[in-house]
Amino acid sequence: MTHVLDPGALTGGGSLTGPLPDPFADVTRSNDAFRAFLHGLPGVDQVGAETRVKVLGTRSIKTTAKAWAIDTAISMVDLTTLEGSDTPGKVRSLAAKARRPDPEDPGCPAVAAVCVYGDLAGVAKEALAGTGINVAAVATAFPSGRASRAVKLADVRDAVAGGADEIDMVIDRGAFLSGRYLDVFDEIVAVKEACGSAHLKVILETGELVTLDAVRRASWLAMLAGGDFIKTSTGKISPAATLPVCLVMLEAVRDFRAATGRQVGVKPAGGIRTTKDAVKHLVLVNETAGADWLSPDWFRFGASSLLNDLLLQRQKLRTGHYSGPDHVSVD
Amino acid sequence: MTSLFEYAPAPESRSIVDIRPSYGLFIDGEFTDGTGTPLKTVNPATEEVLSEVATGSTEDVDRAVRAARRAFTRVWGPMRPADRGKYLFRIARLLQERAREFAVLETLDNGKPIRESRDVDVPLAAAHFFYHAGWADKLEHAGLGPAPRPLGVAGQVIPWNFPLLMLAWKVAPALAAGNTVVLKPAETTPLTALLFAEVCRQADLPPGVVNIVTGAGETGRAVISHPDVDKVAFTGSTEVGRSIARAVAGTSKRLTLELGGKAANIVFDDAPVDQAVEGIVRGIFFNQGHVCCAGSRLLVQESVHDDVVAALQRRIGTLRVGDPMDKNTDLGAINSAEQLARITELTAAGDAEGAHRWQPEGELPDRGFWFKPTVFTDVSPAHRIARDEVFGPVLSVMTFRTPDEAVAKANNTTYGLSAGIWSEKGSRILKVTDQLRAGVVWANTFNEFDPTSPFGGYKQSGYGREGGRQGLAAYLSEGHEK
After folding, report:
1. Second label for B44, Cα 20 to 30 Å away, from A110, B191, B221, B475?
2. Is the pTM of this model over 0.90?
3. Does a structural domain hold residue A6?
4. Where are the residues of the annotated region Disordered (chain A) (predicted)?
5. What is the reported pLDDT for B482?
6. Contact yes or no for B274 and A42 at CB 8 A
7. Is A231 known to be catalytic?
8. A31 within some domain
9. Please, what CATH class does the domain formed by B264-443 belong to?
10. Domain B14-259+461-477 sits in CATH 3.40.605.10
11. In angstroms, rounded to a whole number, what is the distance separating the alpha carbons of residues A85 and B418?
């Protein structure tokens, strides 16, 4: 299956820097009001969420369903390199892999995007020219987010100027945890504006928010502020993406669309390494938010090593036997 | 652009289990013919006849009771308690080793999804044997007297909703306490009990300690009314429970009854909605609603009624109904044509009384006994569907305004087996729990079972407890009278 990203889905939903969606027009009038709103969201029972995820984890995905899931998962990958030692050569190599993940099989779908640090967005853009694969850049003083707002916004503008189609921002976890919700909100609104036509993914860094109640509040905050995607993690903090967190975020986007008519995507990132993990996430999407989210326009995997496992499993389905790690390319 | 994620069928293979064309009774360690007219057991999902099973007559039951008495006085009673424990541990391990076989057979015979027989029934059955194996040589420390003694021969009659699990609930404590057993499984679901008989032989359990006599109501009556039975344990309908109580009255037999239920599942306005919806689903659609403690009356605080019902309907729309052998199935077949007829009749009463019926889209299989997951809203406590036990995938939704009203409505039933509370507020959970007349109250969860936790009811849900120390008391003398 080859999936061509729907450009309308990525850019059209944008520009929500104006008034808030209808039923929530008033909730950000003050920090107290916003706090009351976020804390008034239904609670999350941790045990119940974990039980639900465990049950869905026993879904048996085989044969045609597995083949579909693997190809869909590949098309949802944001192939990522976020190392201090990244170079243009490394990014070009990743771009080559993104456009043709399995050199032995041209029928293998391309990934959704290549995700790099902002200074390498230009290199990625050039390497991916004409492929339909997006360039995603992390910005806003990734991964800590500890910089002044001016620096963060400059970081965003720089990445967009370099050609980034998608910006992955981090929220100010310090402000969130100390209850300064309006500050976090304002910052996302400002970043969204700085993105221009680029698509904004808001990283909640759920491993630092810890509780599922906080994950639900942060999800709503990010969606109200205009985020096009909500993303679990930077990949630099453990735990990163977990299934219960993803469940709560999927419930949030589902409820948000029901309330406002606006659809927001979800991106688990970090720690998803195996096809089995990826398939469990897809089952979660299918049975929580629904089939509308089963596309790279609305669901992504932030991953680097996941792709090779997907490719190995794909080869297994095609040939009937397992091949070794030398049958897929190193990044 | 989006494609549906169509899960490919993933049916469990039935080749692991060897179903014989006919089965006899298991008496004194041997399979023997029954003298009654044999009955056929069918797969409720396909109506295929699985096997023919012997029916025990009064004479057969008498043979079984005599075998049990012999085993009790000569072998099992005098045996060192630690050795009894060894047998129970061995049975528990064999249940685990043959788990897949038991799960497949249970699903074929009962119609429940393989996911539930595999993940719930069989592991819990093994857990009950492990738990009670541990008690076998520690009975004097159970707080039931300094030297509690077994009662003798236990006559046990179990239902069709959890054939293997109910067997474990009955047999494990009886044996751990030193009693021997004559057990009659339900007429529609005898096969896992007969496979259990094979496990008893594999474990070298002395002959006569466990006897299994298959058959219908007549056979059950013979078991409970046999003069040499010391203890009667029954799980099933309140109607049959009443007749058993009458039959046992005036004799020296001990009696415990686990009967029907009409549990209230109370959702307060501060509940964790998504998890509450999961709990409502688990409460009423687990095992097709064939659960005596099913949360069949949903009491929702009026201020969140519409939201909860909408979320519930959306969630029910994702339930996968169909082939119970498919690992992805959530809701399987109704156990029998009779039960399906009863569910159909009671839901028709719901329509007639003015409640509003809702069922999800989708087709049911052509063959077999099926009923769609069903939600009735606008239900009043005066409606039959709010009072009678449907024992099927049918939920009745009512509302309340204050905690007091919730408690009053929850307790307004002739039953009292279980209840559920959904709230983020711990103090409210504790207060309401105290006021509910139910044997088990689950908070922010539903239908959780554990061998260490006693289970039993108030009012017409029966008397006595199973599981935990309290469950042992029903199989011991001295301690019980102390």
Report:
1. B221
2. yes
3. no
4. 1-23
5. 40
6. yes
7. yes
8. no
9. alpha beta
10. yes
11. 61
